[in-house]
């Protein structure tokens, strides 16, 4: 029999990126559709259609990366972000429907798994990843295993009493270091039509105000990284997501300095904070790797 392939689905609020992926993380084929976000039935039908696109006798498992809180142990979807999915047992549903092993994980955890196995974190046993996009997510690898709790790293408090987060809390990493934070900083400096991309462009051409605004965001990121390092002692901290990738060292340099200030020795010297390597495919590759873990019986 040919080497097995897995169908991975990177599920977002606006699109579903699905594909056929081999065990080495190579994407053999991929397809993107809009997420119909109107009802649970619509979303589940779109997910089924995305699987059926690739279903053939080479497919050995299915893996999903979902922007959601998952129940620990069962991976039942408790509540999704920007998708009408609540209290859905997608694992059982897909197993019944397709007769294959199924893995479901939080999208940030999926990206961490991908960067650990196939990206910037290859070869380490302990890794923390933060994805800076519209929101902030992340995942944790501890002692060579993906941590399968909530891992809502974007909702750790960085500034007590700070600005209100989308979740209702205050001063969370997400409200201080997401792409939206970049948009807000850009509007404050350049008016209502400015956005994070423009801010990054201006910083790259040497605009001191833009660089300072990104540095402030980087310092919030670094404070969070320092706290995570003090809890988990990772060998590497990987920063990804669309905003993180676009801003690159404009965020990472101030983040490193802030993280070293907060981290306890010897991590203050040895800490590595690096850019993600897999880019926009991290979610798809990671979702497929969750499928391979289900195939291999890893939980
Ligand atoms: Zn929050």
Could you walk me through the main structural features you see in this protein, from its secondary elements to its overall organization?
The chain has 299 residues and is of the alpha/beta class. It folds into two domains: 5-110 and 280-296, ATPase, nucleotide binding domain (Nucleotidyltransferase, domain 5); 123-277, Nucleotidyltransferase, domain 5. It is built from eleven helices and 13 strands. It has helices spanning 40-52, 90-98, 107-118, 173-177, 179-190, 196-204, 208-232, 242-247, 249-262, 267-270, 282-296, and strands at residues 5-11, 15-21, 27-34, 59-66, 68-70, 77-80, 86-88, 102-106, 127-132, 136-142, 145-146, 236-240, 273-275. Helix 7 crosses helix 9. It starts with a strand and ends with a helix. It binds zinc ion. Zinc ion (ZN) is lined by residues 155, 165, 167, 169, 172, 174.
Keywords:
Nucleotidyltransferase, domain 5, 299 residues, five-stranded mixed sheet, 11 helices, binds zinc ion, globular, 23% strand, alpha/beta
At the fourth level of CATH, the homologous superfamily of the largest domain is ATPase, nucleotide binding domain
| Strand fraction | 15-25%
Classify the helix fraction into a percent range.
40-55%
The beta-strand count equals 13
Number of separate helices: 11
Distance between the termini: 26 Å
pLDDT below 50 for ≥5 consecutive residues: which ranges? none
Average predicted local confidence, pLDDT = 94
Strand order of the largest sheet: 3-2-1-4-8
Based on secondary structure, the structural category is alpha/beta
How is the biggest beta sheet arranged? 5 strands, mixed
- Note the overall shape: globular
């Amino acid at each position: 029999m040919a080497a097995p392939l897995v169908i991975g689905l990177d599920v977002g609020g606006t699109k579903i990126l699905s594909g056929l992926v081999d065990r080495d993380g190579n994407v053999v084929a991929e397809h993107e559709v809009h997420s119909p976000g109107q009802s649970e039935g619509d979303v589940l039908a779109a997910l089924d259609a995305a699987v059926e696109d690739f279903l053939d006798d080479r497919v050995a498992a299915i893996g999903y990366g979902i922007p959601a809180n998952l129940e620990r142990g069962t991976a039942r979807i408790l509540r999704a972000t920007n998708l009408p999915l609540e209290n859905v047992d997608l694992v059982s549903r897909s197993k019944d429907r397709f007769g294959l092993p199924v893995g479901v994980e939080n999208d940030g955890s999926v990206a961490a798994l991908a960067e650990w196995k196939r990206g910037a974190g290859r070869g380490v046993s302990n890794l923390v990843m933060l994805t800076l996009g519209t929101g902030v997510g992340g995942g944790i690898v501890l002692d060579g295993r993906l941590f399968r709790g909530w891992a809502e790293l974007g909702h750790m408090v960085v500034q007590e009493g700070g600005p209100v987060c989308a979740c209702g809390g205050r001063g969370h990493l997400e409200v201080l270091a997401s792409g939206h934070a970049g948009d807000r900083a850009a509007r404050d400096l350049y008016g209502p039509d400015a956005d994070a991309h423009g801010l990054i462009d201006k910083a790259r051409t040497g605009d001191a105000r833009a660089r300072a605004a990104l540095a402030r965001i980087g310092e919030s990121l670094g404070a969070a990284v320092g706290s995570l390092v003090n809890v988990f002692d990772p060998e590497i901290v990987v920063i990804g997501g669309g905003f993180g990738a676009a801003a690159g060292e404009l965020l990472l340099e101030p983040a490193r300095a802030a993280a070293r200030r907060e981290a306890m020795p010897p991590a203050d010297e040895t800490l590595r904070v690096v850019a993600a390597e897999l880019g926009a495919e991290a979610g798809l590759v990671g979702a497929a790797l969750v499928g391979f873990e289900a195939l291999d019986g890893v939980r």
